[in-house]
User: Which sequence fits this backbone?
């Protein structure tokens, strides 16, 4: 059954993205130029769900992991000190650069192409936000990197292990994950890496439950 749900989710995302043309979309009051190769948050539940629930402080530095169009980075920029955004997809990085300019946030948000933390050297952040690909499958193009991964569990393990080195003491990971890919393992992985779960919120959709999880670095 979870396999079928994952298939349905992947098909819906594929269908929605095929229908969308490269254009400037207004989403929650901000402008986003989005091409066909980049995840479009307009019709995605995860992006909005994460932004609505984020813990943020005005003196925080933020890392938006897997920024896509820059949706999360741009939505939170006015509420924090600065945002660094990264994505593996080069076209996403190009769109994000355009969107930073469109929203006049050049002094607040910077973006790099990066495979997880590879481009970041020793920079540390108060919080790292991630809306990750969580459906098991082989991506056939850069767009599908947004929702498919050969092993979502391996990606999260690597992210949790590396994020320790990019957080300040008692820093926070804020992540969204779906019931179709399981939640027990994600909680276990972060626990094993020295984080404690401090907040969990759920939203029930037709075929999956999305979970917003906040982990704090303990030791
Ligand atoms: C679900 S999309 C989220 C996009 C955006 N944050 C949002 O909420 O609208 C996941 C993003 O993660 C990126 N991604 C996937 N694997 C990655 C990796 N190993 N390193 C960095 N980014 C990655 C994808 O290219 C995609 O843009």
Assistant:
């Amino acid at each position: 059954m979870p396999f079928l749900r994952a298939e349905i989710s992947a098909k819906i995302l594929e269908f929605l993205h095929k229908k969308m043309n490269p254009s400037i979309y207004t989403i929650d009051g901000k402008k986003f130029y989005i091409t066909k190769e980049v995840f479009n948050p307009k019709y995605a539940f995860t992006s909005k769900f994460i932004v609505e629930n984020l813990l943020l402080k005005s003196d925080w530095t933020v890392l938006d992991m897997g920024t896509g169009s820059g949706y999360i980075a741009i939505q939170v920029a006015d509420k924090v000190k600065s945002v660094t955004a990264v994505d593996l997809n080069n076209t996403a990085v190009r769109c994000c650069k355009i969107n930073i300019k469109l929203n006049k946030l050049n002094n607040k948000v910077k973006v790099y192409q990066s495979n997880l933390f590879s481009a970041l050297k020793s920079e540390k952040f108060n919080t790292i936000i991630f809306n990750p690909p969580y459906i098991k499958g082989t991506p056939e193009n850069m767009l599908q990197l947004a929702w498919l991964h050969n092993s979502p569990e391996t990606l999260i393990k690597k992210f949790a292990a590396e994020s320790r080195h990019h957080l300040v003491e008692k820093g926070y990971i804020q992540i969204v994950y779906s019931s179709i890919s399981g939640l027990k393992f994600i909680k276990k992985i972060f626990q094993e890496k020295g984080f404690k779960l401090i907040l969990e919120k759920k939203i029930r959709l037709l075929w999956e439950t999305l979970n917003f999880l906040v982990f704090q670095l303990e030791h």
